[in-house]
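Thread: Newbie trying to understand structure tokens

Hi all, I'm a second-year student working on a class project, and my supervisor (Dr. K.) asked me to get a predicted structure for one chain before our next meeting. I've only ever worked with sequences, so writing a 3D structure as a token string is new to me. If someone could post the tokens and maybe explain what I'm looking at, I'd be very grateful. Here's the chain:
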Amino acid sequence: MRISFPASSTSSSERSRAITIFVDGQPVIAYEGETVAAVLLAETRRTFRRTPGRNEPRGLFCGIGVCYDCLVTVNGQANVRACQTPVVEGMRVTTEETQRQWRQPASSARAERGGQADLYVEAAVVGAGPAGLEAAIAAAGASVRVALLDSASQLGGQYFKGPDWQPVPQQDAEAAALFARVRDIPTLQHFVKTQVWGAFPEGDGWLLTLDGPSAPFRIHTQTLILATGAYDRPIAFPGWTLPGVMTAGAAQTLLKSQNILPGKRVVVAGAGPLHWVVAAQLVRAGAEVVAVLEAVPRARFLHPKHIPALWRQWQRLREGWEAWRALRRADVTMRFGWGVLRAHGHEQVEAVTITPLDEQWTPQPGRAETVPADTVVIGYGFLPANQLTRLLGCEHEYSPRRGGWIPRRDAWMQTSLPGLFAVGDGAGVGGAALARIEGALAGLYAAHLLGRLSKEDLHRAETSLRRRLRREQRFATMLGDLFTPGPGLYTLADETTIICRCEEVRLGDIQRARAAGAETLNEIKGLTRAGMGNCQGRICGDLMAHALVSGDVATQEQQLRNLGMLSVRPPIHPLTVETLAEAAEDM
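---
Reply by user tm_fold:
Sure, no problem. This is what the structure looks like when written as tokens:
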């Protein structure tokens, strides 16, 4: 359902030109800038496809192109992500087909790019969110030749994302200033709608392979800054694959970016600030929020050790207070130390069972309640999008309070590989303010390595950044201490619960593989196919690991380190065979 007023300060009720598309042969009114997913949900179509193995319904889940659950057929091309595809006049969309794990050939990538093959730069920045923007601006501001790459249709990442029919989020002067600086620096080129599907060492630098309508096939760069961001942490429970269960990021994207209401009766569950903000946005947009469930007990919020980290975080405190007030005014039920136990429904969510959690976040089903709802929004924090640092062979460490596996870095955000930097949430979840500082530091040091910035100028520029960095690191540490999921949360799934959404692998399949002798995640993957689907383990990798550990928190953390990470191989995103073949021709 479309909403007719702003769901947040960065959305607009003014829509662009109305167009007509065809959904399963029927004409449907849409608006330029909307995604296929938004139009389907506006038309109350929640099932986008059915799975090939068990013919189960699937709909929007992650909302940012990570999970590949929202696949539809567009103009005869199968396996198109509805959440990433803008509508155009006359588009023909087919839903509920049994989507397979391959894509039909698209038009010639070479023709779309005008034959451009190679671009040579001094610094490449992957990701145009807060960290990537600051990194690119810092490096290019020192006259470094920079290429800034992002898969989205506009700059800003998820943090600065606004309506797709507006190039800059409305009333967001901060975003507008950043975007203007990107456009105004002559040594900075930026490419949107561009996937980086491969990254390789090349001499003293790096080679990136790309797929995008305006991008070259390859970029050769002397330094590389990865600002790949993070995505919502998935938590598996019975019924979590039903249409109507979605992440907090998906719900917020629909509200901020599309002005679409995710559902009418909504249960919001999670841990941390985001799901409270999303719950308030849902209320303002007209949804009935049945309950907000916070996994952290109320008493933990009141511990005095957290007070120093809140100093000078006035904007965040104001946002939290405003969200709380909106929920209180709407008389929304708020429960601390509670979570979702199960989602019920045949073709979509119809009801939700909620439960208290103990200190380890283990469900207490003896006190569970079932409430009618058509939507479940889950927001249990984020996982770093670390595929490129893993692909390139950077050293990683397991840090649960920063999101899991993160690359080791020095004080300038340089990884174990010289000239390769990792910044922002993709290198450890810490929020947009911390990400921006890390990006600026990496951009400055890359300019120094390239001989574009003297040692004296480098140290002058870093002075204020270091002070702010320490403040934001304290805040990130507090968030990690408070909201890192307890081990009990991963016991929600039973043996029939899907863990790998792409390959339809259930918890029982993974447990049997472990019993057969598999000791690492890659061995589990080889025996079950979990992690081999379109998302390449982004959704199921963390779930698989936690399903195989036991004991107290410290014991589980060591077991998770021993299980390791899933291997990453190019292409790190699904591509057509034609795109790969054309890239190989020019190698």
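A couple of things are worth pointing out once you decode it. The chain has four domains: 18-94, 111-231+387-453, 249-380, 493-563. The two ends are 48 Å apart (CA to CA). Feel free to ask follow-ups in this thread.
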